[in-house]
Every structure is written in structure tokens, then in C-alpha cells.
Amino acid sequence: MNRVWVRELLEDRTLQLQVFPPATPEQLGRAVTDPAVHKLGLALTGIAFAVDPGQVQLMGGSEIAYLQMLDLAERNEVIAKFLSFDFPCLVIARGLSPPRELARALADKGIPCLGSDLDTSDLIRRLTRALDERLAPRISFHGVLVDVLGIGVLILGQSGIGKSETALDLVLHGHRLVADDIVEISRRGNNSLVGKASEMIQFHMEIRGLGIINILDLFGISATRDRKKVDLVIELVEWEEGKDFDRLGLDEETYPILGVEVSHLTIPVRPGRNVSSIVEVAARNQLLKQRGRNSARDFQKRLLEGLINGAESQTASEEVE
Q1: At what angle do helices 275-290 and 163-172 cross, to 10 degrees?
Q2: Which candidate among 17, 31, 193, 255 keeps its CA 20 to 30 Å from the CA of 8?
Q3: Catalytic residues
Q4: pTM over 0.90
Q5: Which tens digit of pLDDT belongs to each residue from 73-96?
Q6: Is 28 helix (H, G, I), strand (E, B) or coil?
Q7: Which domains, and CATH codes, for the chain?
């Protein structure tokens, strides 16, 4: 199970979080396992509710105002009910501070309290995005991810077959490198896959005979991007005489990644074939398919219509004779 430590949320500058003291290393080491952020809202008023033990709890202006309007006995009762559940941390928005009774009760239970100057809605949006990115199911591939005309193309194949060289040629033609060698892919939602480079080797590429090169330094920011949705998987394989490779494009193959089926093509490689040009055309064709145009099927349809019309014309001629 993926998890995010509370200290990691504090380190994320986009969240603008601070911790209300005291907070021990053990408290900041509590784990968040649910990407959803639970805003307490009416739950504090006595409506029956449950709290996921791995979910961040959040209070905004309305929750803090409600607690402050209660008398001491009622406030302690509400806090005791809330803290009967276990959760990794409480976050308070809008630069507000927790009531003294709440801060004391959280400290007694070992739950850290964090604060942010962001508005409640903005903080929820940023927290959800940060947690969704960190907690998403993920997998790593040995390959190359390139943005070709807005299509995220994941190039796979055995070591030495020319994946990096193909990607470099695509960059020379104005396309953008996302990751080389190690591609980290995470699933977003039910059917979306996003790939990025490992932080250590981001924007770098290994070319046999040349060594390690930095694409960002060589070609500028327009030749790279941080991440890209994976739309197409192209697998490079050695050319084998007698092996039946797809020549019509009528069969739609898919490649499963984290439970998501991605369009898949197998491209045979041999001396003299311009693989980068084939990859670029494949990306253009995928773009057409996403817009509802399938060249192979359109051709098949016209061919069948031509055969049918030709047969009908021949039959009519024979009847006239």
C-alpha cells in the first residue's frame, strides 16, 4: 500500500503548511493512505459519521466558528467524539488556530495539527492533488516516453534495440522527451496513466557510443516536459523473416498497464528502417483515431463498397445482355 508521511506534506511548498507545536518526529511520521480529504462540516454538529483511519481531516472557518460558539462542556464533548476516531493529522485552513481544548486533546492523542493560510477550497484542491499523485498505483518500465504531437508514446523493447536513439531523433524533429531508461507510470482515476522520469535522471538520455547527454541543456525547455499521459505503447522488436507482422492495421491491440488497456503497436526493426518516422506517423494516426478517424477501417469500408458496387454493375450488365 502506498503511503505519504505527514512530514512530506509539510515539505510540499504548494500547500503552505505549518505545524502547530508541539509536534514530535513520531507524530510527523504518521501515514496518510487515502487521497481524499475529509472536511468535517456538519459532522461536528452531532450527525453520525465515520472517519477513515488513513484520511486527512480538515477544518475551515465554519468548523472553527462552530467550536468557538459552544460552551466549554459542549466543546469538549464534540472534540471527544471527533477524537474517538484515529486519523493521521488535522489541517486547519485560512490561517486559523485550533481552540485550546482541541489543540490539547490532539497533543494528548499524538495527532499532529497543521495550519495553512490558503482558503479552504483551494487547500482541499491542492491537498487532494498532492495526495492523489503520491498515493496513485504506480509501476516502472525500462523504456522511453516521448510527447509526439500531444500523444504520449511509450517506447518499449529489449536493451540495445534503439529506443533512446529513436527518441533522440524525435527530439531533433521538434518533439519532447519525458523520460529515458526508467519511466515511472502512475494511474490517475480509472483509465488514465501518467508517466514521468525518475528524479535522478530527469531530462538525461544514454546514447551508446556518446554517453550521457542532457536534453534540457542541449535543446532547451521546449524539448522536454515533466510528465505526460500515456496514449500509445510502441514495442520495438527484431525483424524476423517469416514472422507475421500486422500490415493492414485493422486489429486493435492493447497493452495492459495497472489495469488500463493502452493502444499497442509492434514495430519490427532492421537496418534501413526509419523507426522515428514510423513512430511519428503512428502518433499522428493515433491522434486521428482519438478524433474518430480510422484510416485502415475507412479503406476497408471503401474497398468493400467498391467490390459490392462492381458486382452489382456486372450483374446489371449481364441482365441487359
Answers
A1: 70
A2: 193
A3: 142, 163, 181, 247
A4: no
A5: 999 999 999 999 999 999 999 999
A6: helix
A7: 4-134 (3.40.1390.20), 136-290 (3.40.50.300)
